[in-house]
Amino acid sequence: MIMKIGIVAPSDFIKKINMVVENEFDYMEYTNIIYTEYAEIAGKLEHRQKGFDAMLFAGQTLYNYARKQIKPAVLWDFIPRHGSSLLKTLLKASRSGYDISNVSFDSYKSGILYETYNEIGIDSENLNICIAPEKPFEYDYFDNIYAFHKKNYTEGKASCCITALLYVYERLHADKIPCVFIEPTINIIRETLSRLHLKHIAQVNQNSQIVVLSIAVNTPDEYSLLNHNEYQLALDRMKISEQIYLFAQKLQAAVLEVNSNNYFLFSTRNILEVETDNFQKIDLFNRINNEALSSISMGIGYGETVREAKYNANLGMLKAKKWGRNAVYVVYERKRIIGPIEYEGKKGLQQSKIDEKILNVAEKSEISVNTIFKLYSIVNRYKQDCFTSKELAKIYGISVRSMNRILNKLEAAGFAKVVGKKVVADAGRPSRIIKIFFE
Is pLDDT of 4 > 50? Predict the structure, then answer.
């Protein structure tokens, strides 16, 4: 698998990184992003970084500066300041005739400097080094570092200046001030590229991790009207099943339908988290709330194996059922649990609202609850609320006269009204078209 990286570095240094990639990392495809001043970085990266799998920065100061300006959208890493690079630079300075015990430094902390000198047999008592304060976000930071080195050299405090900042090196060199630029060794570049590749593989594996969703359709309360109408209950289950499959399609998930009340969805971590905005927008709840009378309980399970993820998903679903609301529990590896994550407008089972609505209509119209619920089921089944009394009587299974009595009561109570007339035969009067509503 080809890994696309963007290399952010100054022109004088970028060739060395390119050489290492070309010679040793044939599975990497690189693009150079060259800069001359740090102020250019944000503009060069903001709209380009998403075209890469990772960004590699030439140094830590550059990396820190870029992070302050823009947010990483892919993997970011930098070539670190290792002691081996410092050793190489000190050797180069020594061979150029400079007194390496008397140096002006930037970009390195005192600890690593003293440690490196100790490695080559120079203890701290014999050192007279100047270390620049590291404040990369300070206004005119690079000019201040240049002035720091120049002052140390002109005042005789340093035999030469050692810098990891190309801008500073070029200015000192132009002023003919002895200076040496710290470059990372080929081995450090190699190690950094290998580390970046391993991070990329880990991220790809994590994003491809199987995640299991366990969804249970909540059983209506034993006193619910929905529980006493088998057809309406079956119709409700079909609507929920349809919405679950549509949700699975969005997640590119495989569906295991255990029974009419339980489902498992198998997706990947990356797709699930992107499509749900990290579980903040699970539109399945809204869809079911709008289309069906029942509610669902959901658990989302992660695991190192599919079996573990499935177990965790079931654990989350059972916790959601106990919560008694439309909510989600997310269960990660080692039983780390997040939840309940609740959703607006889903505080109770919708069927209780339907029961309340039907009881209200029955009470005000003085018609039995069973009759009103059967009419409600017919409206839902045929997805229409306008009928002639003859049509409604035939579906309901009673005489037209009996249906007219029911409709008259509904009309008197404000739950039905005539919205038109319809000719149903060549002779005779037109039939009334009645609109029924339950609000």
Answer: yes
pLDDT of residue 206: 76
HSE of 250, CA atoms in CB hemisphere, 13 A:
15
Whether residue 223 is predicted with pLDDT greater than 50 in this model: the reply is: no
pLDDT given for residue 231 in this prediction: 61
- Please give, one letter per residue, the 3-state secondary structure of the chain: CCEEEEEEECHHHHHHHHHHHHHHCCCEEEEEEECCCHHHHHHHHCCCHHHCCEEEECCHHHHHHHHHHCCCCCEEEECCCCHHHHHHHHHHHHHCCCCCCCEEECCCCHHHHHHHHHHCCCCHHHCCCEECCCCCCCCCHHHHHHHHHHHHHHCCCCCEEEECCHHHHHHHHHCCCCEEECCCCHHHHHHHHHHHHHHHHHHHHHHCCEEEEEEEECCCCCCCHHHHCHHHHHHHHHHHHHHHHHHHHHCCCEEEEEECCEEEEEEEHHHHHHHCCCCCCCHHHHHHHHHCCCCEEEEEECCCCHHHHHHHHHHHHHHHHHHCCCEEEEECHHHCEEEEEECCCCCCCHHHHHHHHHHHHHHHHCCCHHHHHHHHHHHHHHCCCEEEHHHHHHHHCCCHHHHHHHHHHHHHHCCEEEEEEECCCCCCCCEEEEEECCC
Q: Which residues pair with 28 in a beta bridge?
A: 3
The tokens describing 324, both together, are 């008694």
The predicted model gives 217-239 an average pLDDT of 64
- Identify the CATH assignment for 350-436 out of 1.10.10.10, 2.60.40.420, 3.40.50.1000, 1.10.238.10: 1.10.10.10
Class of domain 208-342: alpha beta
| CATH top class, domain 83-183 | alpha beta
Whether 3-79+189-202 and 83-183 share one fold: the answer is: yes
User: What is the pLDDT confidence band of residue 425, given thresholds at 50, 70 and 90?
Assistant: low
- What would the pLDDT profile of 361-408 be if each residue is shown by its tens digit? 888 888 887 788 778 878 877 778 888 888 888 888 888 888 899 999
**Domain residues of the chain, as ranges?**
3-79+189-202, 83-183, 208-342, 350-436
Classified by CATH at the fold level, domain 3-79+189-202 comes out as: Rossmann fold (3.40.50)
